[in-house]
Specification:
678 residues; 22 helices; 7-stranded parallel β-sheet; binds magnesium ion; alpha/beta; globular; binds adenosine-5'-diphosphate
Length: 678
Amino acid sequence: MKSVYDSIEVLPGIGPKRLEALHSLGLYTIYDLLTHFPFRYEDIQVRSLDEIEDQEKVTLKGNVVTPATVHHYGYKKSRLSFKIATEDAVVQVTFFNQPYLKSQVNLEEEVMIFGKWDALRQSLSGYKILGSKPDQDFESVYHVNKHIKQKTLLTIIQAAFQEYAEFIPEIIPQSLREHYRLLSHKEAIQGMHFPQSEAEFLQGTRQIIYQEFLLYQLKLQLIRYNRKKEQAGIAVLYDVKRLKEFITTLPFDLTDGQKRVVNEICRDLRELFEMNRLLQGDVGSGKTVVAVIAFVATILGGYQGAMMVPTEILAEQHYQTISELFEGTEYTVALLTGSTKTKERRELLLALEEGRIDLLIGTHALIQDDVTFHNLGLVVTDEQHRFGVNQRQKLNEKGQNANALYMTATPIPRTLAITMMGEMDVSVLDQLPDGRIPIRTIWTKSDKMERALEFIDQQLELGRQAYIITPLIEKSELIDLKNAEEVHRMVNEYYRGKWQVGLLHGRQKADEKDRIMHAFKDNKYQVLVSTTVIEVGLNVPNATVMVIQDAERFGLSQLHQLRGRVGRGSEESFCLLLANPKTENGKERMRIMTESTDGFYLSQKDLELRGSGDLFGVKQAGLPEFKYADIVKHENVLTAAHQDAMRLLSLEDFFEAPDYEPLRNYLDMERKLAKNLQ
Ligand code: ADP
Ligand code: MG
């Protein structure tokens, strides 16, 4: 039985050499070949001269009226020229470096030539001579490489389509196909490769994009669905009254957003499935306290909690905050980092194993082998993008099917969230606590450093502190460091005898970085010159100014993250962007920064202005590669596919109805494939 997943070898005329060439393009199966779509189309309709613009690519038809001559010049260069009479005029035709075409040009015979029109000279610079009558008005142009030619590839694709068209599976259920008026997959593939009209390949494109998104979404949603269905987690049954009591002891009222998110999390905790939830919240939106409430629920339910953060200084910060919140309660919290002393560590680990510690906060130190919990029920990872999948996994494995909450202050646009993390549940904190004074952001020219230093001086006189962020010169940390050192020297010189200036950069050891951040926190430095290594979670409420040099080199999301280091206290804060953007796009980004402090809005703009590839934090996390679909350009389709996938899985008959069988088979095959790869 033939299948489109057969290897390309089965096609006639594919020898080892061609096979290798196709492999080098990433094409292995018939289906790979059938979905290796043209990246553009050439309009090869015969047109009349009066409707053609200068430099347009066109096809002209006419009789050859002068003998073809070849003129050789230079090294291996040649020019083939002749004239043709079209319906409108006599046109000069020239082919460069294709002398062999001469044999196809015979006096008084009709030819069709595809080339570029020069209106001034009334001449055509030929690309190719077409056969008598092309059966399409468009010619497909494929990505190829030096091992294979356009024409060869097209022939192979034609052969593949001829032999396998009837085996192209129809995966999208009839109901959805009708709803969106989509072509069948087979028609779509045909329309993409061999369109008879523009409408045909546009229709084809619609089907292909939707199918790509729908299948991807279904894969993710199925993971989520199974996790919930398996009911293999911990149901944390806590005393609701006591949790509410704890919440009333907090030094502030929860925002509506915090209340909503706490409810979402607590509902998951009570259920028997493993929670797998992402908490997205802008810088300063108050994620920590949400985590603390979830921990208290967990503790009340009889389990322990663990919170992993990327650096010691953040661990200490959280430890301090939480110790204060736990004052006067019976809940116990401990801190474990790389600097925990041996004896203290030994005692701590014992207490942890015996269940005398309710909540453990720490760095990577938490995932060391000898750290054993009594009964871990909730794992929280703060600044989750700073950890690798393995590290997060390791922490989860400290418990048995423990609930997991991942927190991030890098707001991800919705589109990206449902693409990258569709298998997770997502909670969003989209509002800041009341009473925050918005940071004032000002954009000035790059050469205004001196003015910036004067401004900083005024703020320092008031007892405040400042950050100066040095630019990314290039992808080399060493060169960025040199630059940061230079800025540090200059600033130090400027404030000599008056203010202390610290330097922070990526080449320092972790404990050295911690020491410097501590010193800044304790106001031993009034100014901190730093590369972008400055911690996202660093909380120094007394810092009220940030100067960012060459701000145009950063993306909006990253600028927003950096800016979030100020505006954390009760005084008004300022962010000065020093930038001379050269492009309109760059200017637009600076303007947007001065106008908005909304992280979600900024990350959405970043996505639009720079594309998903550049989005801060996203590259590391890895986006799936779609063959044809683009999450920015086809955002609407993605959203629709996302909703359709959720709806399909919630249908009672999804796992039985015949209409969904091809879809189920496909998902099954994918699942087996993924298993084999593991
Ligand atoms: P992030 O989400 O960036 O981690 P944090 O949890 O560090 O933010 O909170 C930032 C600051 O806001 C902290 O000082 C915290 O005490 C305060 N905060 C949190 N929630 C509220 C609230 N509902 N009302 C007032 N202040 C709050
Ligand atoms: Mg935080």
